[in-house]
Amino acid sequence: MSVIQLEEVRKSFGGVQAVDGLTFEVKRGEITGFLGANGAGKTTTIKMLLGFVTPDAGRIIVSGTNPSAVSTRRSIGYMPETAWYYPWLKVGELLRFYGGLCGMSRREIDPMASTLIKRVGLSGAENRQLKTFSKGMLQRVGIAQALLHDPEIYILDEPFTGLDPLARIQFRDIMAELKSRGRTILFSSHELSEAELICDNVIIMKSGRAVWNGSTEQVAGDGTRNLERVFLNIIGSDTGMEA
Amino acid sequence: MSLIARQMNVLIRASLLELYRRKDLVVVFILGAVLLMPLAFATPFGFSGAHIYFNEMALLMVWFFSVFITLGVSTRMFPYEFEKRTIYPLLAKPVSRGTVVLGRYLGALSASISALVLFYAAYIILCGVRQHVWFSEVLVQAFVLHVGLLMVITAIGLTGSLLLTISANVTITLLIVFGMLLFGAKLPELADQQSLAGKIALYIAYAVAPHTEFFDLRQRLVHGWPAISWGVCAVVMAYAAAYSTACLFVADLLLRRKKL
Amino acid sequence: MNFAINNRDYTLPRLRILQTLTALLTAVILQTLLTFSDCELPQREGDSMLTLVSQDTRMVLSAEMMKKADEYFHGGVKVHNCDLNDHAHDHDHDHEHDHEKDHKHAHAHNHSHDSEQSRPEVGRDPFRWINRHIHVQEHRHLQAARSVELLPWVYAATKTSPHNIMAYESGSYILSDMLNNPRLAVEYLKDGIAHNPASVQLEMSLGELYYNKIKDAGQALTHFQSALNKSLQIDEPDEDDLFMRLRIFFYLGNNAWQNGDAIRLRSFYQKAFELWPKNPMTLAMEQWLDEMKAGK
Ligand SMILES: Nc1ncnc2c1ncn2[C@@H]1O[C@H](COP(=O)(O)OP(=O)(O)OP(=O)(O)O)[C@@H](O)[C@H]1O
Ligand SMILES: [Mg+2]
Fold this sequence. Notes:
The structure holds three protein chains of three kinds. By secondary structure, chain A is an alpha/beta fold.
């Protein structure tokens, strides 16, 4: 059963065709990697999935409904590509802020928040305002806030960027745990090795279209191919970098 | 607690935390003390019985600083959200844009009112110590109407911040607030001296611009005139509420149309 | 009573627009603070950074402060259509020779109470209705004993611009007549004279203060004489200067009359007659002369 569905979705900004007839679907309980070169249209697609941007044409269904409906976002955990969070708040306060927006009570938020803070490796930094956090630490904050209300679907824009190797491993574990609980994850990334390790499926975008959509087994199917090769085959085909 | 109430609650708390963590208030209080201290101990010609000048200056500072703080809080919010992209995780939560506008408005307003309470407390203490008069009905009315003023300024600042850059917004809002404070009541008379186009423009301004002069009880308070009727107070507060609501509708519309 | 700057001495641009600028308000506050902190304002160019605040600006600020004092006198209400300068002139020319009333500021509060009479009708304008309830619609006059409330502004006005002669005049009136402290008024006027050595008016006011309030005819005479000398040094005296001179002759004549000195009285009368034969002051002097003749 698919929880995210796109059909012939198009979006242009002025003269730039950011998304150009994109069609794919993400099934419940699967981890899907969303790959593509810079400017391929990944972030734009994700913004449309969250209802930030309305498509010019095509159909998008998230969790059975229209993504611009407020109620749809109840079941979505989102982590933005780059975010500074409110710098004068502490991480616990930020989680209370987002938790409250999700309708959670303090009693629900506080235990969840302390677990998450530990889980993303921010213990010891609870009493610091976010303005003192490093880039990777903020990235961890981003992970924590996406997980806070335990949503069904995770839409993460480049979650691995800026994480140190240990944090990557921890985050892979988190993803695996979410998957084991039947959660659906769609994440964009430039980290092909990470994607290969944890994804059930990968979608490779080029110039606003999905040019490759298949399971990770399919990628590894004939033994000689790996995701990097596939990626370079597709993306590098007009840059002379064919494998 | 309902969902909306929880959402409002956290939006308001965040604004209050921001105001107090940013330490703007500390700066303002130090500035106020530095400006008022020499005045407090002035004894022109050796006479120490003059109070009105001090009350007026202190109240003027309350006005300046509260407008300054209110504009600082209300005009920064949305531009900051967009500049720092915190708008994305915010709107990714199950919260409507209307709720965000209202929550941000109430947050900015509570922050400004909390600062106003501190300012009036300082005013009452400063003037009370000098004159041994601590309370008057006009003082209560002045505070209530000042809250009304902050309601309007916050609404304008917030709405303007979805259209203009911070500095342009602050400048225009300040011009409107103080321009209307000085000339709002005289606009019809000024209009009657103009040619047709000017007349129409001034009458439109009279109808549309926020009448900040409604909220100004400084003259009554400082010079010891009697209190106004509470009915008039209620009318002015209703005006403030209506004006703010209209602004917030526009803000909601603007936020909905805003490209993310 | 009203305080404003004398148009004759200083041409003030109508800078109402300045009031709208918060910059000016800040400047007023700063200026007030500086003056209250007893910081000496620079008298010469290049004295300090305060010379940035040029003479003209200081005069404008000083005038604004005196307007403030006037407002305070009326319970914080700006009394419109009460042009001070006209007022002062009327006053001067209608002079009664009653000494008590002769003081420059003794003009009774006969400004048109316009705000009460001709305010526009509310009609169907709800905004006007609100404004009329919020803002005070009448004015009142400060009790003499509370006129200490005016002093900060007067003090600040002359500290801001020591050339604001009207401020010295008003200040000395408040000190001597409203607060019953003519000695302080004398000090203040002397300070004014030190800053404005050419001012006939200040010298004259000091003389009147000694004459009418302190009843020290000797000191008064010195200052009237000094005022006369200053008046005679004016190259091209205008009508106001000549009127001031007439008043000096009047006082000097009155002093001669009190002392039974007919010769001096006659000489002052003749000079007054040359200036203004039909003026009540001239006529009064004529009457004293007649009395003295009859008495002899
Ligand atoms: N608001 C916008 N206005 C104009 N052009 C835009 C806007 N947002 C995106 N674009 C354009 O759309 C195209 C797709 O951008 P998008 O951000 O979706 O790429 P991406 O795949 O996320 O790239 P990256 O890997 O660098 O994050 C780019 O050419 C970009 O310049
Ligand atoms: Mg991107």
